Amino acid sequence: MALLLLMCSRVGAQIPKFGHVKAEEISDMTNPVDPEAEAVFLYRNCSSTFQFNAEGMLVLETRMRCRLKILKEEGKDWATVAITTHYNKKNMSSDVVSGIDAVAYNLEGGKVVKTKMQDKYVVKEQTSDYSRTTKFTVPDVKVGTVVEYKYTIVSPRYYRIPTWYSQLSIPVIKSHCDITYDNDFQFSFESKGYEQQKVEKIPSHVSYSFRGKLYNADAQQLNIDAENMPAIKSEGFVSNPKTYASRVEFELRSVSVPGVFYKNLTTDWTQVKKNLGEECYFDKCLKIKNPFKAEMDAMNLMSLKSVDRADAIFKLLKSKLKWNETYALWNDDPLDAVKDGKGNNAQLNFILISMLKDAGIVCTPILVKFRSGGPLPFSYATLEQLDSFAVAFCDESGNLFFLDSSADYGGINVIPAKMLNDGILYDQSIVPNALPRYNLANIAGHKTAKTIIAMVSADGKIQGSLRNVMYGQDAMQFNKAYHAADDSASFVAKKGERDDYEITSYRVKDVEGSNVGVMENIRFTKELMVNGDRIYFNPMVFPDEHNDYFTSEVRKYPVEFPFLEGTTVSSRIVIPQDYEIEELPQNAQYTFHNGDLNVVIAITVQGNTISTTYKSEVNTVMVLPTDYAALREFWGHLLELNSLNVVLKKKANV
Known about the structure:
Elements (H helix, E strand, L loop, with lengths): L1 H11 L10 H5 L11 E14 L5 E13 L9 E7 L9 E13 L2 E6 L5 E7 L2 E7 L8 E10 L8 E2 L6 E11 L3 E7 L5 E13 L2 E17 L17 E11 L3 E4 L4 H11 L2 H4 L7 H5 L8 H15 L1 E2 L12 H5 L1 E2 L1 H14 L4 E6 L19 E7 L5 E4 L18 E4 L12 E2 L7 E10 L4 E11 L1 H12 L3 H12 L2 E8 L7 E11 L1 E3 L2 E4 L21 E2 L4 E10 L4 E5 L4 E5 L4 E10 L2 E10 L3 E2 L4 H15 L3 E5 L4
Parallel strand pairs: 1-10, 16-17, 23-30
Antiparallel strand pairs: 1-2, 2-8, 3-7, 4-5, 4-8, 6-7, 9-14, 10-13, 11-14, 12-13, 14-15, 18-19, 18-21, 19-20, 21-22, 23-24, 24-26, 25-26, 27-28, 28-36, 29-35, 30-34, 31-36, 32-33, 33-34
Helix pairs in contact: 6-8
């Protein structure tokens, strides 16, 4: 016991007592981790234990203490703290936040002056059907202020232990988290991230008060310590840098207090889906009646193939109900959306499933974790990792397709980018030999095809037509931009300004509704570079890519491409009769990592016509940091091919 107390005191000594702030902490404006930081956590301390509350329910009690320093004006936002917790007004499973205490420390006349936050600065609001945010703002905060706060969360959802982040979006000088649990608990953890953190277990002791009796047991204390953690800084092509932060994730497989309480929490995706079905109204929602049966009966859908049938049903749903721009994993009553004329994606997707089933289409939810949260864990299954669901359905050959009602300009296999991540089929029996999980980011078919027919004039201009056909995600992104514009005229004007050409005629097809194929037909004029008797022009006219996203020599995080994509450019350019080709680029082809990325260009000449075929492919959604140097080299070649020039020289007089 003496050894245990010594070890615990050593850990605790790393974190100063609450309320003891020295003048030098306020006056010192240096930051050894990042001199450019707007604020810095001097310490973050979290301590969690399992206890029984007055009603005999097992709860997880977490005490949080933080001290931070404001270094720049924009860092003052860190004096506002938002605590998001589970909230369910229908039962007693809500988390309780209490013991909020916050103080600002400033230096006035060489003395430390405390400003304690009053209760009126604490605001609670329900932010979704099952979450509540407790927010407070510490007063009298300025550049140089040290802010300190603490609070306690008691959660009856003891089995869902929040991930501990040693690394945040501002530097952390000292970070400590400890969780104490009974030796009879089946408890595991996984350390992740790129910065070093120390994780160790030490012997401990716990006491439980249950129905008037005190129970003592041997226990383990898991300590997570880190020092001088740099801020998580965003890099290009990263959906959420927090995904790569140094952190520890926890799993509680079973809890046991001999003679008092036992529960097996071991779970797999089968159990998760069972819990969804029974406790989260999933099975009930999957049995709702189709509210648009009459409209569907009038559409003669059964004469169509299943994919066309599903497309028509999706368009009908989108014409009847609006998405309210929120996501959910489950809902008490999806048909409330019919009454309101709008609903979250879970409500609309349940209704979509009822419509598809009525049309004889085999379908099921596919449970999804948002892309920004990283991949689903491979070592365990948990409801906590799921954010929403899309709809999976089969055609006559057993091929899987996907829909999501939140895609206002989407359709079959065109769902929002945030949903392009790992998914779990709710009913695996809909397809033979179904996989346990699917990565929706691997959906193919997103592409753009450009066809250019143009003529170069002797006065240094190129005029012609551009037909731009977009499919899948490319079409959906175009539609969003087109409909977000003030009007079509301003959209066209900005398009010409951005790409430095004059649009003389513009037509677009299939923009309205939820179509996923869009065609632009453009007549254009573009000024070329002229130097004396020479004319220079890009044989692609409109390059596929001209941005160098990978200028940094090193990279800490993987490169995430948003989706699989392909681009083709075909051009036929007629040159003036009194000019000849002085320089013509060579054909070239480059490949990265066994075809994960490809680019090729081929240029031919027949008479006074130059024909160019260009093709680029993105066949992966992730490139690891170990392959970053090779990616930079490939991207350099791709940019070279997009910036090639044909040189024309005026013929000498005969």
